[in-house]
């Protein structure tokens, strides 16, 4: 589905946002009806206003207090609380950002209906005055793409299908695309990508998309592990059940590309997208614990856990990215459980050595409600990723600082890639929340989109 605002129409009904404890707007002509219905303006309250003919004349929406997350209230209203039909904002209290309200509404419309065939339509919003409807729709469309890709099971979203999605997107935004697949990866010197994916029925590949021919160069790298069994270090069932989401980095990058193209933010930028797309499977030719692999960069890697495969495929992709000396490189990956232990599912950590870039991303993340939290490339931990018989260890023992050591591993391969930012995302909403149904979710893309004008200036 594509998110869209309703056209302006005389049939649209008014929606009156009300702060908790505030007077009901006089224009609502509500009389004593809200009080009789127990409406107080608390967060998430809905009061439908009768038209005197058995129909609905409008509605009141409780915003809670001024510091509550107002966007979530509109996501809730768009998701389940209001009846179908077209609505418009009759008024908005001072201090609320209409752009964020409009985006919240569209995000609240998301449904994943590929396998259930349920109707996806619900209440629609007429775009508030002063809001750039096309821009907000483009941002929501990018998020919808990310969610759809993560929610699709690996039976229908393997490396073949992920490549096709990338090709379709490239055609949509008029970008060029090339793909290196299977044994050609060895000939082209992508040995780690090949090693991780060679045991799967669908061949491993590296997707390379480009858009724009002038301006600063921005490279996005997304982990595309379409399913992760853990390899020969097989995951237990409780850990394997969500592994269709292990391509969440690639899904987020593709969603961000749609946002960049749809909002015009890609203009004046040389955009490059690299997605190593693999399935980490088990077969006689699977890579093994204890193997020492030589990367594209020439660094050797001792495989101490085949379930730490994401950093391997990203290593070759980051090396390839650095060969063109971009101005800014960002990697998105569902990389470590340690990040979830540290910050939970809602707040992904990001790593960046450049203070100005990190500050801009952190500020943008908070401004647009796409939370991120900066973590350190802690150099003293470098010794943890240096085993005895190879240059690097893909899975240091001990379990401490797992997200940091993974980021340090990646940084070894991002040398020369300009300012480097790594986002260790989760890509999954564990339980339903306003605008975020249980399932796949984008993380970090809107924050990066908002920060780019400052970061690339």
Describe the model.
With 457 residues, the chain is an alpha/beta fold. The protein folds into two domains: 13-109, Leucine Aminopeptidase, subunit E, domain 1 (3-Layer(aba) Sandwich); 139-455, Aminopeptidase. Helices cover 32% and strands 21% of the residues. The protein has 14 helices and 19 strands. It has helices at residues 33-36, 70-81, 98-108, 133-151, 159-173, 184-187, 191-197, 237-240, 248-263, 310-322, 337-343, 355-367, 402-413, 445-455, and strands at residues 13-19, 46-50, 56-64, 85-89, 123-125, 176-181, 205-211, 217-222, 224-228, 270-280, 292-294, 300-302, 328-333, 349-352, 373-375, 392-393, 419-424, 428-429, 439-440. Strands 6, 7, 8, 9, 10, 13, 14, 15 and 17 form a nine-stranded mixed beta sheet that branches. The protein has a five-stranded mixed beta sheet with strand order 2-3-1-4-5. Strand 11 (292-294) and strand 12 (300-302) form a beta hairpin. Helix 3 (98-108) packs parallel to helix 4. It starts with 12 loop residues before the first strand and ends with a helix. The model has no long low-confidence stretch (mean pLDDT 94).
């Amino acid at each position: 589905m594509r998110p869209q605002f309703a056209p302006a129409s005389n049939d649209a009904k008014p929606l009156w946002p009300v702060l908790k404890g505030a007077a009901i707007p006089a224009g609502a002509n509500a009389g004593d009806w809200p009080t009789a219905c127990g409406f107080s303006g608390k967060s998430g309250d809905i009061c439908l206003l009768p038209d005197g003919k058995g129909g609905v004349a409008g509605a009141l929406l409780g915003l809670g207090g001024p510091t509550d997350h107002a966007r979530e209230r509109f996501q809730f209203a768009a998701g389940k609380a209001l009846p179908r039909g077209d609505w418009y904002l009759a008024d908005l209290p001072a201090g609320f950002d209409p752009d964020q309200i409009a985006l919240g509404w569209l995000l609240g419309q998301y449904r994943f209906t590929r396998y259930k065939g349920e109707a996806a339509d619900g209440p629609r919003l007429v775009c508030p005055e002063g809001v750039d409807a096309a821009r907000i729709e483009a941002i929501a469309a990018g998020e919808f793409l990310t969610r759809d890709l993560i929610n699709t099971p690996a039976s229908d979203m393997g490396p073949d299908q992920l490549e096709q999605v990338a090709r379709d997107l490239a055609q949509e935004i008029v970008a060029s695309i090339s793909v290196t697949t299977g044994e050609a990866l060895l000939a082209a010197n992508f040995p780690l990508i090949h090693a991780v994916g060679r045991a799967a029925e669908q061949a491993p590949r590296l997707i390379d998309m480009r858009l724009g021919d002038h301006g600063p160069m921005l490279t996005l790298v997304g982990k595309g592990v379409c399913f992760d069994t853990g390899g020969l270090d097989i995951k237990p069932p409780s850990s394997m059940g969500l592994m269709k989401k292990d391509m969440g980095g690639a899904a987020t990058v593709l969603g961000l590309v749609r946002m960049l193209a749809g909002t015009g933010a890609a203009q004046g930028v040389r955009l490059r997208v690299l997605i190593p797309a693999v399935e980490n499977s088990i077969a006689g030719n699977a890579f093994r614990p204890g193997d020492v692999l030589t990367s594209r960069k020439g660094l050797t890697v001792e495989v101490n856990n085949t379930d730490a495969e994401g950093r391997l495929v990203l290593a070759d992709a980051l090396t390839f990215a650095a060969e063109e000396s971009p101005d800014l490189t960002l990697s998105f990956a569902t990389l470590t459980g340690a990040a979830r232990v540290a910050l939970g599912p809602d707040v992904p950590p990001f790593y960046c050595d450049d203070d100005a870039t990190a500050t801009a991303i952190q500020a943008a993340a908070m401004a647009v409600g796409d939370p991120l939290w900066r973590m350190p490339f802690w150099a003293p931990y470098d010794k943890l990723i240096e085993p005895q018989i190879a240059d690097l260890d893909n899975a240091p023992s001990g379990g401490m600082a797992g997200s940091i050591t993974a980021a340090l591993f990646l940084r070894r391969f991002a040398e020369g890639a300009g300012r480097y930012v790594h986002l260790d995302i989760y890509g999954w909403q564990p339980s339903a929340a306003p605008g975020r149904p249980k399932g796949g979710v984008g993380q970090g893309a809107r924050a990066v989109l908002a920060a780019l004008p400052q970061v690339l200036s």
